[in-house]
Amino acid sequence: MKKKVINIACAVVKMEGKTFCAKRLRKGPHYIAEHWEFPGGKVEANETPKEALRREIKEELDWEITMGEEIGEIIYEYPDFTIALKAFACTADNKNYKLLEHLEAKWLFPEELLTLQWTAADEQLIKVLSLNTQ
Hints:
2 helices, 8-oxo-GDP phosphatase activity, 7 strands, Nucleoside Triphosphate Pyrophosphohydrolase, NUDIX_hydrolase-like_dom_sf, alpha+beta, 134 residues
C-alpha cells in the first residue's frame, strides 16, 4: 500500500546569526510529538508553499516574518506517511511571536542545532542544507 504524501512548507527563520526552533506539542505519532522543528505546516490544495507558510506562521505563532527563497526540499518516509518538506530562508525583525501550537522555542547558533531532538525530516533538512555549519 502506498503511503500518503504530505506536502509541508517550513521557515528557517534567522536573526542575529541564530535560527528559530520550535518544539511540537504532545500530539501526533510518538516519533514527532515533542520533537523540535522549523515552523510551518501542510500545503493545502488551493495554495502555494509560500502562501501555506505565511498562513501557518500566522496560525501557529501570530508572527510577521519576511519570506525568502526556497533553500531546499527533502522527502522523508515516516512509518505511516511520507513528507515532502520545502524549506524557505526567512528573516524576522523581532521576537514578538506567540507559542500557540508549540511547547517552547529557542534561538540557536548553527553549531547548536543538532543538540536538540528534531523530527527526523527536520534533522535530515539540517544535514542536507548544512545549516549546522554555516
